[in-house]
Amino acid sequence: MYQRILVPVDGSALSDRAIDASIGLARQLGAAITGFVAEQPPPARERRRAGSGLRLIEDLDSLTPEAARHVLDRFAAAARAAGVPFEGHHARVEQVDVALLAEAEARGCDLIVMVSEGRGAFGEFLYGSQAKAVLSGSKLPLLVLH
């Protein structure tokens, strides 16, 4: 049925639910998992406003791959313990939903499993919804966990 599952994660407790659920699903299906950390750069105004604190922003940028690697290493260890094939990738992106869809296509994924904070209509209006954006742009099935 499904052979490769894309699972975007960010290291939050909520994304840990996606890790656990996707490993269980992949194990049942005999599928492999592609873990993906997509991070947006700090907004340009934050970089400008930092002024003398620009060094701090640069330090944050240099730590991002390390933090992503830590998240993906935890995911890989959990997948390995369950006997599920895993590969992890990290990218700095401008638009998370576009990057997720491109990653799914590039890696040959046939299912996306992701979490949603379930903010409701008002929260979506204020903050947007990555899950909704992925759903509207995807040709792949999407399993959304709350």
Chain-averaged pLDDT: 83
Distance between the termini: 24 Å
Strand elements, count: 5
Radius of gyration: 16 Å
**Major β-sheet annotation:** 5 strands, parallel
Helix content: 40-55%
Helix-strand sequence: EHEHHEHEHHE
CATH architecture: 3-Layer(aba) Sandwich
The total number of structural domains is: 1
CATH topology: Rossmann fold
Name of the CATH first level: Alpha Beta
Would you identify the CATH H-level superfamily? Answer: HUPs
Q: What structural class should be given to the helix and strand makeup?
A: alpha/beta
The global form is: globular
Low-confidence sequence ranges? 119-128
Describe the overall structure.
By secondary structure, the protein is of the alpha/beta class. It has one domain (4-145): 3-Layer(aba) Sandwich (Rossmann fold). The protein is 54% helix and 20% strand. It is built from 6 helices and 5 strands; from the N terminus they run βαβααβαβααβ. It has helices at residues 13-29, 44-49, 54-82, 96-106, 120-127, 130-137; strands at 4-8, 32-39, 86-92, 111-115, 142-145. Strands 3-2-1-4-5 form a 5-stranded parallel beta sheet, sandwiched between helices. α1 (13-29) runs parallel beside α3 and α4 (96-106) packs across α6. The chain starts with a strand and ends with a strand. Residues 119-128 have low confidence and may be disordered.
